[in-house]
Structures are given as C-alpha cells and as structure tokens.
Amino acid sequence: VISAPASATVGRKATVSVGWPSSVPGDEWFLGAVSHAANGFLKGLTLIEGENTIEPKTPFLDYPFDRYFSGVVDGEDSFSVNFAYSGSYSAKGHGLEPGALSSGTIAQGDWAKHEVELSGHAYFQVYLPDFLVDSESYSDLDLYLVNPFNQIVAVSQGPGNDEFVEVAFPMDGTWAVYVYAYIEEPSIDYQLLYWKLSATPGGNLNVDGAPTAAVLGSEEYIDISWSAAPIGIGPGFLYVGAISHSDENGPFGLTIVEIDNS
To answer: Which of 162, 176, 183, 232 is deepest in the core (most CB within 10 A)?
Structure first.
C-alpha cells in the first residue's frame, strides 16, 4: 500500500494507492489482497489479480510434432527441420511401442481413476477411442491427466468418447488419468489405450540420417525408418514412437510417430 486515508468518514469517498515490484515473475498470474480494518477488526478485502505475460520467443528449432502412417509393416519417412541457432544437435529414435489397455466401469456423474508409474520416460499418451466404449446409448467420457503433484497437465473434453491426452518428458512418479462420465445408462464399461516411451533411445524406430550440428538459418532433413510392426486386429497393432531432438543440454522436443496397423 503506497497511500491510504488514516481515518474514515461516513458518506465520504477515499483513494487507496497500491503498487508491486517489477520483480514479479514473468509469464505468470499473480494474486494479492488489500485488507480493510477499523478499530482492530478486519472489515473486508480487496483482491488484486493480474497476468504478467512475456512476449513469446521464436523457437530455436522448427520441427513437425507428429507423423502418421497406416498399414505399413516396414517403412521409411523423411521430414525437414529448420534451425534458429548454431550448436550441437542430434536426433534419436524411441520405440515403437504397441498399445496397452486399462479397463474400467463408470456410472453417470462419477469419476474413475487410473494410476500409472512413470520413471525415465520421454513420452506418455492416453487415448480413449469410441470403439472401446461399451455403450448402447449416448455417452460422453472426458479425460484428465494429473501429475504426481495433483496438478492437471492435460484435459480432453470433446463431444462423444474420442478423447486424447499426452505429456512430453513427464516427471518421475505416480501419474493419474481421471475419467468423467456423461451417460444415459446406469453404468458402462470402457478401455483406455496408453503408450509409454522410454527416454533411452532404442527399439525398431531408427534415425538413418540427421545433421550432427545446427547451423543458424539452415534447413536439414531427418531420415527415419521402422521395421517389424505387424498388421493385425486390436489395439496391440497401434504403435507409437518418437524422434527426440537434442542439443548439448539434452532433449528439448519430440516428433511423435504413430502407425495404425490394426
């Protein structure tokens, strides 16, 4: 509080001036309060909130976030990346991993919780396709991804049951996927599809060609290939992998590779 009246008079208006330091962190919401007291008793609060945003910075690597393929057992692809920095760079393959299942039953207005342990992972994805929801009438299930600190990281609230949440470079610990139900039946059964990709490169998704250094303003190509991704029926033939992009400080981005061979 910079200035405020020392006393109050019935029917008269007064001005309270407040300020805050320039050291308030950038790109965050902040909340404060001014208390109003008289004769030693709290009479009320004036809440002060604001958003101290910062200008977005140009990313130092422009790369595709995902690549999708269907019906390819052994395949290859190439995509471009554009560098906005000079320095070290490497690209590595992670996966492919087949989909795993987690089953549940839920009633109208209820929550279901699915816990998963993540440790040393580069990527985690959960998908609720409509074909894995056993419903005979209208149903709408939503997904919420919560980290070990009970903070919501991702939400999927589309109409119907086709929902999807993901996180890159998740912290180690117990994560939770919450399902919420809007349904017309007493209860329904469902199955979640999920994938966990190790942060350690390896598997049948390979990087065949990539630059070994970044040059400011240059465009380069990443050549990838995969093998032994069988075609079949069921969620186990939905594969997810990733290409990690790294500099001298470690990985900073992922290009997700999805192959639907079901």
So the answer is: 183
What pLDDT does 15 receive? 85
242 token code pair: 């990733």
Tokens of 152: 């919501």
| pLDDT, tens digit, 9 for 90 and up, residues 236-260 | 889 999 999 999 999 999 999 999 9
Q: Are 97 and 241 in contact (CB under 8 A)?
A: yes
Strand partners, 83: 61
Do the beta carbons of residue 229 and residue 96 sit within 8 Å?
yes
Residues 6 or more apart in contact with residue 187 via CB below 8 angstroms: 105, 106, 107, 108
**Alpha-carbon span 32 to 49, nearest angstrom:** 6
Could you give phi then psi for residue 105, rounded to 5 degrees?
A: -130, 135
> 0.85 exceeded by the pTM?
no
Q: Which of 97, 31, 36 is nearest to 229 (CA)?
A: 97
Residues in the chain: 262
- CA–CA gap between residue 164 and residue 149 (Å, rounded): 21
